[in-house]
User: Which sequence fits this backbone?
């Protein structure tokens, strides 16, 4: 829904994990600066309670996990090489 915030996460494939996270802007876009080169997963979640972290939900009392989507490929980020046109589609409700 429009009352929640989209947050995009950039997370290394390798361990130890390096994680970058930021709220998407008003146009639902994200732009990470100064990322250490490497292979990354990209995913976005709908931060319904606006607490700045992904909530996995609960069994008791029952609570749904926050909605999320993964980008369908890993990104191989290189130093000073911009990567454009990474789209993660959410069906608008």
Assistant:
């Amino acid at each position: 829904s429009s009352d929640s915030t989209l947050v995009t996460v950039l997370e290394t494939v390798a361990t130890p994990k390096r994680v970058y996270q930021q709220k998407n802007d008003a146009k639902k876009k994200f732009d990470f600066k100064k990322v250490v080169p490497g292979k990354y997963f990209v995913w976005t979640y709908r931060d319904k309670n606006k607490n700045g972290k992904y909530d996995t939900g609960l069994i008791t009392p029952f609570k749904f996990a926050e909605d999320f989507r993964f980008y369908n490929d890993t990104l191989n980020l290189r130093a000073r090489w911009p990567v454009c046109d990474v789209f993660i589609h959410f069906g608008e409700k």
Remarks:
- DSSP finds no helices and five strands in the chain.
- The longest strand covers residues 38-47.
